[in-house]
Amino acid sequence: MNVSFKPPTPLLDLDLLKTLVAIAETGNFSAAAEVVFRSPSAVSMQIKRLEELLGRPVFIRDSRSVTLTDDGEALLIHARRVLALNQQIISQFIEPDVSGIVRLGATDHATEQFLPETLRRFSQTHPGVSVDVVVDHSNVLEKMVEGGELDVALVTRCANVSETENGEILRQEQLVWAGVKGGIAVEKDVLPISVWEEGCIWRRAALEGLEAQGREYHISFKSSFIAAQKAGILADLAIAPIPLSACDEQVVVLGKEYDLPLLPDFAIGMLVAKGAGAPVEAVASHFRANFAD
Predict the structure, then answer these.
(1) 141 to each of 9, 106, 213, 271, 273, how far by Cα in Å?
(2) Domain limits, the chain
(3) pLDDT tens digits for 65-120?
(4) pTM of the full predicted structure?
(5) I want to staple 151 with a disulfide (CB 3.0 to 4.6 A). Which of 110, 141, 178, 280 is the partner?
(6) Are 284 and 152 in contact (CB under 8 A)?
C-alpha cells in the first residue's frame, strides 16, 4: 500500500514580512533598506525569496518606484497583523510592566512632519502604552506641562537656547523663505507674507529681518497651522518662513535672487513633566532615539 504525504506548509520568515511592509510604506527598495538595516541588494534578495515561496509576484517594479500587486496588497494586510501579534507576544515577556496612558503635546509642525512615523514605531515596541495627543502652540503646551495636564511636549525653541532652561533639544532645523513653484507673490513691491501668531519665533525672525532691510510687507495670510500656511503659499497669496523639511515639489525654497533676509535655525525641544513614570520615560526615550536617527 502506497501512502503519500503532503509536504508541510512552509513558514513565512518574519524578516521577509517586515521588509515587505517597509517597502510598501516607503515606496522603494533603497528607503526600505534603511528602515530594516539591510543593503538594497539584500532587500531585493528577500523579496525574491518571498515571491519564490509564494509562487507569485508581490511587487510591480519600474525604474523609480515599486507598487504592490493585488496579491501583494492582500499579503500586506496579513503581514501587518502577524508582525503586530509577534510584537505583542514578545512585549508581554520582555517589557510586561510598561503600560499606561501618556499625554503628549506637540506643535503643528512636529505633528505633521514627525509624529506619524515616530508613534507608529512606538506602538510596535510598546503595545501596552497608549499615547493621547494634543496639538497646540508651544507656549500653551509649556504651560500644560507645568500645570500637570501633559506628560511630554514637543515645542519650538530658538536654536541657541540653553537646554537646561527649556528642556532638551531633539533636533535643529533650518528656517527658509518658501513660495509656490513658479509663483509671483515674491515679486510684489509690498511683499505678502504668511506668519503665525504673536510670539512665534518664526514670525519674529521674519518680520525683524524684513524691517532691518527696510522692505515693505503686508501680512496677507494668517494661520497658526502649517498646513493652512502651505495652502496660502500654494494659492500664491503669500510667501512664508517655514522649516526646510516642510518644503516639497510645489512649496519650494526661495533663492538668493529675491534678496530676502536670512533666517535663523530653530530647534524642536522636548519637555518632560517632573516625576514621570515608566510609560512617560519610554515615550521620551523613543523620541530621543528617533530624532537622533
Answers:
(1) 53, 7, 33, 9, 11
(2) 14-94, 100-173+268-292, 175-264
(3) 788 999 999 898 888 888 878 876 776 676 556 788 999 999 888 888 888 888 98
(4) 0.65
(5) 280
(6) yes
The residue-averaged pLDDT of 174-196 equals 90
Dihedral sign for Cα 87, 280, 107, 35, please.
Answer: negative
Burial of 50 (0-12, 13-18, 19+ CB in 10 A): buried
Which of the 8 DSSP states describes residue 199?
Answer: T
Distance CA 211, CA 169 (A): 29
Q: How is domain 175-264 classified at the architecture level of CATH?
A: 3-Layer(aba) Sandwich (3.40)
242 touches 117 (CB < 8 A): no
Domain pair 100-173+268-292 / 175-264, same fold: yes
Residue 67 Ramachandran class (φ > 0 left, ψ -120 to 50 alpha, else beta): beta
- May I ask the CATH class of domain 100-173+268-292? alpha beta
**3-class SS of residue 49:** helix
Contact yes or no for 125/87 (Cβ under 8 A): yes
User: Please, is 267 exposed, middle or buried when counting C-beta atoms within 10 Å of its C-beta (0-12, 13-18, 19+)?
Assistant: buried
CATH of 14-94 among 3.10.20.540, 1.10.510.10, 3.40.50.1220, 1.10.10.10 = 1.10.10.10
Per-chain mean pLDDT for the chain: 85
Nearest CA-CA partner of 212 in 168, 259, 273, 272: 259
Residue 12 pLDDT greater than 70, yes or no: yes
Q: What is the pLDDT of residues 191-224, one digit of tens each?
A: 999 887 665 778 888 888 999 988 899 888 877 7
